[in-house]
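Weekly sync notes, structure subgroup
Attendees: PM, AL, DS (notes)

Item 1: joint prediction request from the bench team. They want all two components modeled as one assembly rather than separately. Inputs as received:
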Amino acid sequence: MSLADPALAAGDTPVDADELARARARRRERVLRWLLPSVTVALMIVLWDRIVAWNEIPHYILPGPGLVAQTLVKDAPILLPALGVTLQITLMALAVAVVGGVGLAVLFSLSRWAEMCFYPFAVILQVTPVVSIAPLIFIYVDNRLAGLLLCAWIVAFFPILSNTTLGLNSTDHNLRDLYRIYGATRWQRLRYLQIPTALPYFLGGLRIAGGLSLIGAVVAEYVAGTGGIGSGLAFRILEAGYRLNIPRMFAALALIALTGVVIFAVLSLITHLMLHKWHESAIKREN
Amino acid sequence: MVVTWRKPKPLGERAKLLEMAAVDKAFAGGTLALQDMNLTVNEGDFISLLGPSGCGKSTALRLIAGLMHPTRGQIRWEGGEAEIGVVFQEPTLMPWATVEQNVYLPFRLKGQSFVQVRDDIHLVLKLVGLEKFAKAYPRELSGGMKMRVSIARAMVTRPRLILMDEPFAALDEITRHKLNKDLLELKEKIASTVIFVTHSVFESVFLSDRIVVMAARPGRVSTELTVDAPYPRGEAFRTSADYAALCRTASDALHAAMGETA
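Output from the run, pasted for the record:
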């Protein structure tokens, strides 16, 4: 309800102790939400460092965090271009997954027959591990970039397809009746009713797909092996492994993890920006 | 949109708008939702369909709205097209659209641009008392306000007939009384015809000039009552002896209709 007691809205009203305690708890939680994970991660890194130092573990078995950081800086001329390659494949795969996933979902919602015919294929592609399909793909697809993209796409498109399909079919039945009464065309129903309804579902799928397209890109690179041209982070990890350059393996791994986190954060931000005005998931309640 | 405070003609002199003639509606499962339903709707009528649940009130409304076709019998519109506005039990607003964009929907689906109809939209929002909330999102509104938006959307195209399916059933009593009163004023202002489904005797007596009492299993018209009280009606009418007597008559008719099945 939007009704508020004007006396309570004013700042000079005395507030009971219970309410004050609740406000304090809320403030505390806001700080702890950032502080606690940061401190935990920092502690783990320190612990890692100490374990390596106290046990005198050689760097070709387990490098300490300091050495990994040094390697990250020292090997930047090798690692950053590799990151660029992996990122390029990831983002292109995500873009193709969005286009393909949404396109298929719209097609399925326009034609239930198409859905019945082709949905099984989407499920089969999804449940078959990409590592087992990838070698075949690299036999049939000459272009290495296209092969990598295809692998990453296979992994990433399904959550977008399944979520968007669910969203497009989740329209309010009364609104559907209303559109019929006003003689809406199929296109109008899709444009003004189904797509806005599906938006939160799509964005949920997009956040999953963002992480998956990175996984797909990395896995595909492993399978594709040393192509020479345009080698990504996964290739650098393999290569460093052969040379027992364990610190560089860790550095590359750290870059991949960081990339995943950044992709998730950016997609979460996009979700928030698109939904915060109206969707329940983005609304903060006062009581 | 010109706002006219037009008094509807007396009951006997109104032009026919819509006729349901011997309408049966059977569902594929074998349920007979409506049997031999006859109803004449005249321009300016405020008709309540009053009955227990399962008496086919909502089915009748869906048939009139053209969402279903009768199994037997006919639904005939007198002259012109079937222009309808609908209000459901839930406000049924699009949560991603602002109040004015929700009210704009019927025009948008007819292919009219927002600029063309902005004045109509703002006028009808003023009529329902929400002109300050044009840019608000539905979640920012109370239940009663959302229902007002829903009513505004149904009225904005000035349809010849407005169908309302228990629109106030989920609201608290204070809000319901206020909306009842405002609905009557609105109906007079836009000079439309209303068919109002309800299971509340009090609501039907307060609002309508004709009450069609329905019986269940199979759904059919049991009796029709005329509420002979002048509009505009307000709190004075709600507390009058006439109102109490009319409520008793309607209540008896409803019980008689329910007794038919017992």
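Discussion: Chain A touches chain B at residues 1-3, 172, 174-175, 177-184, 188, 192-193, 196, 199, 277-280, 283 (CB under 8 Å).
Action: AL to compare against the crosslinking data before next sync.
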